[in-house]
Amino acid sequence: MAIRVTLVPGDGIGPEVIGATRRAIDATGVPIEWDPREIGAGAFVRTGEPLPITTLDSMRANRVALKGPVETPPASGMRSVNLALRRRLDLYANIRPSRLHAGVPSLYDMVDVVVVRENTEGMYTGIELEMGTPAVEELIGFIASTTGVVVPSDSGISVKEITEHGSERIARFAFGYARANRRAKVTASHKANIMKFSDGLFLEVVRRVAREYPEIDFEDRIIDALCMQLVQAPERFDVLVLPNMYGDLVAELCAGMIGGPAVAPGAHFGGKEGRELAVFEATHGTAQRLAGANRANPVGATLSGAMMLRHLGESAAADALEAAVVEVLREGTDVTPDLRAPDDDRPAVGTAEMTDAVIARL
Ligand code: IPM
Ligand code: MG
């Protein structure tokens, strides 16, 4: 029986990289019934909604989605349609495996780090109070009376919130991931020395959960030191678990070490133990200037597709698809222009032709 999967091509280069991924997945022989839906600028133009309820319903019903990059239309009044999607579906765990593949231009020789990012709280609460408003004035008064600290009246204020529940479920997800994928170590990162009641809580909870996984090494790093050590010696790290904003930054830093966001896959998980709902997407943007030009790099999207196959229990197909992508990158003949090192003057190919090369190796 075919597996139903919600398919969101998205905006900009989205339809090309998702189209390529769909073709490659279909070529593995896994029977998938795609359920195409819309999110983003295109959806807003056609339906008046950047995040149509029919798309959310489809994702809830199918429990698995493959998604391209989407644009948040300013006229929609929405802060970020990506964040709204994660929030509405409570996709609390964002997994971004960062593995450097041979043939991809990079400053490094070996990188194999998995970022597990908390995806719903931290600095991303969206609670924003604008300078000069009565709300700020009231909050400043409250802070002065409860802590004695006088916040300057010309402050804009963003609220960061970290919960015990949120920290516990992301910690469990990280250790569960490490166990399932035979990873040896989890490193938690934070700024608990400064933010004792938010990052401090996160660290305390992750430490507690770590004790339930004695076979997995656990350590923690203050976030600035982690960034420094990552760029200096990425081979020291394995699985990283981080609060939302640090996860955003470190995931992008790791993408930079493996050749850039175009080659970096990703997934978001939600529901009980993160098993009930999964949205697979590469981490890059819509790259409007490349849209429709058959120039977009399909690697991040295709590797996200391989992650999806693995999630669906199709591990042989997932391995085959991943191996085919890795082989095409290693050979370096049929790759998009961005994957050419500056000193390599072989002609590049388009998104579609690179995907043909992947399919030929399945
Ligand atoms: C990401 C992106 C998003 C984020 C943006 C698009 C809102 O940077 O997925 O990493 O900040 O989470
Ligand atoms: Mg980001």
Adjacency order of strands in the biggest sheet: 2-1-3-12-11-4-5-10-8-9
The named CATH superfamily of the largest domain: Isopropylmalate Dehydrogenase
**What is the CATH domain class of the largest domain?**
Alpha Beta
Number of domains: 3
Radius of gyration: 21 Å
Class by alpha and beta content? alpha/beta
Number of strands: 12
Strand content: 15-25%
**In angstroms, what separates the terminal alpha carbons?**
22 Å
CATH topology term of the largest domain = Isopropylmalate Dehydrogenase
Q: At CATH's second level, what is the architecture of the largest domain? A: 3-Layer(aba) Sandwich
Order of helices and strands: EHEHHEHEEEHEHEHEHEHEEHHH
What is the makeup of the main sheet?
A: 10 strands, mixed
Give the helix level as a range of percent: 40-55%
What binds here, in terms of ligands, is: 3-isopropylmalic acid, magnesium ion
What report would you give on this structure?
The protein has 362 residues and is of the alpha/beta class. β1 (3-8), α1 (14-27) and β2 (32-36) form a beta-alpha-beta unit. It has 3 domains: 1-97 and 261-362, Isopropylmalate Dehydrogenase, CATH 3.40.718; 107-118 and 161-257; 126-159, no CATH class. The chain contains 12 helices and 12 strands. The two termini are 22 Å apart. Residues 248, 252 line the site of magnesium ion. The site of 3-isopropylmalic acid (IPM) has 5 residues, from α4.
